[in-house]
Predict the structure.
Amino acid sequence: MSWFLGCLARSSRSVRRFRADDSGNIAIMLGLTLVVLMLAIGAAVDIGRWLHARDQTLAAIDAAVLAGGRALQTTNGDKNAAIAAATKFYDENVRSRFPVTDDSVKFAVAGNGMGLNATGNAYIKTPFLQFASISKLPLISTAQTKFDGMGSQIGMKGGGDTEISVMLDITGSMAGQKLKDLKSAAKLLIDTVTTTNGGGKYTTKIALVPFSEDIHLPTTSALSAARGTSWPSTRSITSGSGRNAVTTTYYLTDCVVERMSTTTRYTDDAPGTNKYVTAHYTTSTTGSGNNKKGSCTVPASSAIQPLTSDTSLLKNKIDGLSAVGGTAGHLGTAWAWYALSPNWNSLWSADNRAQAYPTLDSSGKPVLVDGKQPVKKVAILMTDGDYNTQYDSNGISVDYTTYPTSSTKCPNATNGCSVPQALALCTAMKKKGIDVYTVGFDVGKNSLAAQTLSSCATDATKYYNADDGEELKNAFGDIAVKLTTVYLSK
């Protein structure tokens, strides 16, 4: 009996030891844990590669559509050049990306012609996640295999409305190829900057101010508002004395010249009594008998175009320009300012009127209005030569031949020579917060015209000296680029 009880006790201890021995379970559990851990590490590697490739791809697309949008500006809207630029930027920026498959990203010019859109996708293979039946991951979206609407748009800098006044030299020296070059450059500017952005919240308007010896206003009502109505139809001016006296008759034209009032001649004060601009008188006439009157130098087809966003209207106006006359640059400068001035809105219809000036802080920078940028006002002044025409109090051009030798040799001009008048107008204009760009066309590097334009510009970066038509186009294009920005739209 004692033997049996001893055997039973030994058997019980063996069972307990067997039940307590879990070394096999540990090995199995360790093996399973290692498998799960390796899969997790592999998945993390796959996800890390996907994130890196995805970030590179999206950044490459952003860079590409911005480059394509900018190419649209600098190539006068050449769609093929824009797409080529976008494709090149994309390819360069994904060169160091992890290998991908099925990259179908492509670029196309947006329907409005003012930017690029990107469509397509790319995938990265997943060596580890394929054990979970995930062989590849999309780099653009995990929910769709195609994306739409990611792209660029061209809009004005600052996020607000913009008003641009462009002074265009149409004097006799611009005849022929130079005028053709000017028309191409001006239309490039229009194509680039006349746009609506911010979902239709912001607008850009342009005014055109052609000038030579006088300024032609677009309507009789604008003419009356600018110069008043108390001008005689003729002026008889006698020069010399005694037997050498000569009387010349000058006839009133439908054009205007400079202001003569010492208090308002270099301001943008609204026209009115003692503040009107001077009527232009000339010996050149049109008509006969009671209908005889003075002939403007600037033809009606080259009258001022006040602010508008109608690109067709602006381009048609440019196409109709013709070259004639001398260079009264101060007149073009003054009217480039008046077109941007709310004080002169009485001359224009409601759609062509300028907005109020922005309020400036102590440093001359515009103050935000309700957290938003106020209207930006820009004047672009272009000429191909020295300013050489100025006027006396009768509205008759004087001192033409003595002017080119010096900016101070205009003794018969009421306000002096054209150059100092233009400089005074530029200084006053800039104090109003107007950004002034200037463009010399074939004026040389050290000419009086170059010095005048350089001084008129807001700063050195806004003065251009173009030697030929291609450089003129580049100058206007660069101004357009500076005024606009290419932004992402998604």
Observations:
- The chain has ten helices and 20 strands.
- The domain at 162-219+298-489 is CATH 3.40.50.410 (Rossmann fold).
- The chain has two domains: 25-156, 162-219+298-489.
